[in-house]
TrEMBL record:
<dbReference type="InterPro" id="IPR001940">
    <property type="entry name" value="Peptidase_S1C"/>
</dbReference>
<dbReference type="InterPro" id="IPR051201">
    <property type="entry name" value="Chloro_Bact_Ser_Proteases"/>
</dbReference>
<dbReference type="GO" id="GO:0006508">
    <property type="term" value="P:proteolysis"/>
</dbReference>
<feature type="region of interest" description="Disordered">
    <location>
        <begin position="73"/>
        <end position="108"/>
    </location>
</feature>
<dbReference type="Pfam" id="PF13365">
    <property type="entry name" value="Trypsin_2"/>
</dbReference>
<keyword id="KW-0378">Hydrolase</keyword>
<dbReference type="InterPro" id="IPR009003">
    <property type="entry name" value="Peptidase_S1_PA"/>
</dbReference>
<feature type="domain" description="PDZ">
    <location>
        <begin position="340"/>
        <end position="432"/>
    </location>
</feature>
<dbReference type="GO" id="GO:0004252">
    <property type="term" value="F:serine-type endopeptidase activity"/>
</dbReference>
<dbReference type="InterPro" id="IPR036034">
    <property type="entry name" value="PDZ_sf"/>
</dbReference>
<keyword id="KW-0645">Protease</keyword>
<dbReference type="InterPro" id="IPR001478">
    <property type="entry name" value="PDZ"/>
</dbReference>
<dbReference type="Pfam" id="PF13180">
    <property type="entry name" value="PDZ_2"/>
</dbReference>
<protein>
    <submittedName>
        <fullName>Putative serine protease HtrA</fullName>
    </submittedName>
</protein>
Amino acid sequence: MVLPSKKYAESVRHQTVSYRRSRLAAMCGRMASRRSSWIASVACALALSVSPNVIAQGPTIIKRAVEFETTSPPSAANYGLDDKGRSAAESAVQEGRSVSVRRPSLEDTTQPLLEDQRERLFNELAEEFSMFDRLGNLVRRVSTLVKPSVIHIEAHKTEKNESYDEAGAGVVLRIHDEIWVMTNRHVIVGASPKQILLRTNDGREFHPVKVLSDPSTDVAVMKIAGIDLPAARLGNSDATEIGDFVIAIGSPFGLSHSVTFGILSAKGRRDLSLGEQRIDLQDFFQTDAAINPGNSGGPLLNLRGEVVALNTAIASSSGGSEGIGFAIPMNMAVKVADQLVRNGALRRGYLGVTLDPDFTVADLAAAGYNEKGGALVKNVRPGSPAEVAHLQRGDIIVEFDGLEIENDDHLVARVGLTSIGANIPMIIYRDGKRYRTSVTLTDIN
């Protein structure tokens, strides 16, 4: 441990600045390998945490312990080190050792700041603001890029002799060289094309000429004719990671083309109860970007301006956003849209097994089962594709079409969206061993 001069340390006993190079370097290295370097910079700027331990010094002054981690030794100058102390700190950090230095607090004091302290704090804030402003500028640019491809939807519906309008959003796609607007089925179900009003961000209004939808996924597409609209760019939703920044655009409470910002909170949310609506094939993303009634059908975007999901539902006790929104991954939604346009309906794959919804990995851990997940087969239907593939009761399907299976709901979603007639590879676990096989799915209908 290397400290500044004794006199300096005695005069400023209350704040601690620690440099731990290896820990943050590893974290930022991982971030930079997955994302652009500026995101890693923002994360490093956020590595400032305030301890819950409050230290009382005298009757009026309260100070808190502050820990700061950095991989940039020169930044020590911003935290009160003199030349001698800074040189010692830099040397220690370069050797991978931990350094603690003490400095006066600029926080939580009833005493006025000295002019040099005010200037130092202003410079620190300016440096951190520039990092966050780059992120804000990126959000603004993504919003400008994508808004022309986002459509405000108003559907006039009649239910139980009562008429009402439901607002939502949609995203423009080009499917087989035609312009379509993708949205959620629940936004437009019960309304004819003439009862569905579409509005662009520049105020143009029109009606769809054709509407197709699938209740099992809550995906709908509407064909547009006679108007030129820019199609949104699609991202690979399978490549998204928890913690990625995301942007939602929609019409919350009818306020068209509203933009919110957050992160991807989770993936693979299934078996959700969505009120009166039943969605059989679920594989939702979860986000804390504000999603409210009216956001349904709007795009969830990455910071490259690519659509990675379709905002669909929220978990809420108040009816508004509480930081838990759900979106259909775009890879899944596009598969459904493609089949709707090609066939007029979704042709769901059929495997022919009954699965155990209560199975967990822990059930077989003592027996040496080391897989991360899997779906346990309770029954194989006679004459089904599963029987042809020689699946048996008690088999555990651990991989399907190259993807590791997490649980029974995951397998149901993957099978339901797999192409009919294609030869699909599988890996099953039986009697303590892995076996490779393949199956050709048929149409569930």
